[in-house]
Specification:
Blueprint lengths: L1 H10 L7 H33 L4 H16 L2 H22 L10 H27 L2 H9 L4 H31 L11 H12 L2 H30 L8
């Protein structure tokens, strides 16, 4: 009991507790992960259109993008965005006469890095989902004279989303784990806050264990959300036995 009381005092919300800071950091982790995931969804959709294009140049560019981004370490992508963005902002500031240091915002760096990396995976998910759509449904929409945008909005997008949700759930889990890499830019997310607390109290095990629990809670809630989304998109369809 004494050990548990000491642990609760460390991670609680009292005067010496780190509970509020850990929850704030967990919210930051969730925020940068959601922004990165949504950015990757938009960019991944564009890459998918390029992959399915009848123009060979666009297909080559899309394939090159997914090959490079899936082959390069994610931490290297974070560094490239942070230092590359800082250099660009410094050059831009110098152009307007400002000689001071301009650092790339850590949250923006995380959003862009996570989005660019996850887009490579999400594009493959979308492409596989599109290839799973029955050709007859698309041909039927064309046969009745449906224009491209209504056809996409009413037929293609709902069907692709139905098949893509399980894969998107896996991609979301990857984005959530990769968000810990953003701590190298100075963003105080869950892992970084755990490191700060562990260094200040010299109790690393307790704080890293708490970080594990918070990550698992976010993962568990996320799994429930994606399962419900999958169930909702399958409403009205008949599953194969």
């Amino acid at each position: 009991m004494e050990l548990m009381d000491r642990y609760l005092a460390l991670v609680g919300f009292g005067e010496t507790g780190w509970g509020a800071l850990l929850l704030t950091a967990a919210a930051m982790t969730l925020g940068v992960s959601v922004c990165g995931f949504l950015t990757g969804m938009v960019l991944g959709s564009v890459i998918t259109f390029m992959q399915l294009s009848r123009y060979m140049v666009l297909r080559w560019l899309a394939d090159g993008y997914t090959t490079v981004l899936r082959g390069v370490p994610d931490l290297l992508v974070v560094y490239l965005f942070y230092f590359g963005g800082t250099a660009f902002l410094g050059y831009l500031g110098g152009f307007f006469g400002y000689q001071g240091f301009i650092g790339m915002p850590a949250f923006l760096t995380g959003t862009l890095a996570l989005g660019v990396v996850s887009a490579a995976y999400q594009s493959e998910v979308f492409r596989g989902a599109f290839n799973s759509v029955a050709r007859g449904e698309l041909e039927a929409a064309s046969a009745v004279g449906m224009r491209p945008w209504p056809k996409f909005r009413r037929i293609i997008a709902p069907l692709v989303l139905r098949y893509a949700i399980p894969g998107l759930g896996n991609t979301w889990q990857l984005v959530l784990k990769e968000s810990a890499l953003i701590s190298v830019t100075g963003l105080v997310e869950l892992l970084r806050q755990s490191q700060i607390a562990a260094g200040s109290t010299r109790r690393p095990f307790e704080f890293y264990l708490t970080a594990v629990v918070l990550y698992l809670v976010i993962t568990w809630v996320s799994s429930i959300v994606f399962r419900r989304l999958e169930t909702r998109t399958l409403r009205g369809t008949r599953r194969a036995l």
